[in-house]
Amino acid sequence: MKNLLIILPILFPFLAAITIAVAKFQEKKRNVFAAVSVILNLVFVVYLSHHMPGGKLHLLKINEFLDIYFKIDKLSIFFSSLVSILWVFTTIYSMEYMKHEGKEDRFFSYFIATLGITLGIAFSGNLITLYLFYEFLTLATFPLVIHSGSKEALESGKKYLIYSFGGATLVLFGMIILFSLTNNLTFVPKGILNNVSDSNIYLISLSYLVMFIGFGVKAALVPFHAWLPQAMVAPTPVSSLLHAVAVVKSGAFALIRITYYIFGAEVIRKTHSAGYLTVLIVISILMGSFLALHQENLKKRLAYSTISQLGYILLGIILLNESSLVGGMLHLINHAVIKITLFFCTGAIMYTTGKTEIGQIAGIGRQMPITMWCFTISSISLIGIPPTNGFVSKWNLALGGLIDGKAVFPAILLLSALLTAMYLLPVITEAFFKKGDNVILLKKEAPKKMVIPIVCITMITVLLGLFPNPILVFVREIANELI
């Protein structure tokens, strides 16, 4: 009976979302209810992490394939904690930001429901459960992408659905092949393929490749990335969710699950699948950076940056050694906190000044110093300058490349860091060192509900760089179990 508590942080956000949709609260009461709901859910996740590690629940088992199964392990604790913490800050930020977007009740309903779905992905104990919640994630985030209802938003939403369901179809195809060989889809450290005959190596390779590409769609793997920049038409809190927490990180999380908990590093080495995927990942890293350089719209520049940075995480997964996996998982955290701050800062600028283009923000560092200093700190962290958190994850990724005997990977990371500096530092220069059209710029920050989350997450970013050991030790424990 105690194991039923595992579904509490998954089910509770759905109940909260339905309550917001049906109750029609006044604005202040709705905001309080939303904030209390996500904070309570964080408490549930922390409780389960500390008091029920290793907990398991078969919620519904029809047969070996259709088995809705939840399990708490170190990787699920890692991902669910990240999601739950950042959701609290995004909720507070959204209270103010969504005032000028409208349709707030609908937004908060889908927004909080998405939290429950993302935690369903985190606590999935087998591939079919993860797949089902992965599909639900697309359905829940689609109304958020098309929130404004404009023609551009509807077109972006259509593209998002096509790419997402296309990727999900590939995943399903790979799952069917895998199940025909193993009759098992349960997540087990080092994989479930130990006793599979070498004569099936081609089918195993095909299954892994199509599943990697399928899940890679949400992780913006080139050439399946086009939906991500288009989704920038969504409100900034949604962009933050798509690019920092829920969607793209769920894709990366799913890739860790299939690589190390279904196939296993040894089997993937035998199939030689990693070589093909590495080419796409390297292209993603470099192409995302080059495309970011040519974007004048600040949100779109950050969107293409996300494609590049996600490539770092995927590279860490596919190099199949402990240092690279540690680096990839650290970057999953570090990129999340850095990129959500950058989007929050961009949203604050848009909310306060209405400016969206880089050429329009000259001198805004004097008008919004707190916002732009947080943007600056986060930018330096994303570039990977020591002693920031971005440096810690990229250092481990570079070590992973050297351990693999391929010095080309550290070289690619250095080139990408240089390109990251080239597309972020001009924003800072424009904001602090150029004068705007107005000779006198009055100090006018965004409202406190927006500024406080920005400052808090920036502080987390700094702390993760100065004191990385607690997270580093935990991530290494996970990697030790897998390789």
Which helices and strands appear, and what pairs or packs with what?
Layout: H1 8-23, H2 27-51, E1 56-61, E2 67-71, H3 74-97, H4 104-122, H5 127-145, H6 151-182, H7 201-218, H8 227-230, H9 236-245, H10 247-263, H11 265-271, H12 273-293, H13 298-318, H14 322-353, H15 364-367, H16 369-383, H17 389-403, H18 408-433, H19 448-466, H20 469-482
Antiparallel strand pairs: 1-2
Summary tags:
single chain, 483 residues, mainly alpha, two-stranded antiparallel ribbon, 2% strand, globular, membrane, ND/Mrp_TM, cell membrane, transmembrane, ComplexI-like_HydComp
Describe the structure.
Its main location: membrane. One of its GO terms (cellular component) is plasma membrane. GO terms for molecular function: oxidoreductase activity. It is a multi-pass membrane protein. The mean pLDDT is 90. The protein is 74% helix and 2% strand. It is mostly helical and 483 residues long. The chain is globular, with a radius of gyration of 21 Å. The two termini are 34 Å apart. Strands 1-2 form a two-stranded antiparallel ribbon. Helix 10 packs parallel to helix 13. It has a domain at 283-483.
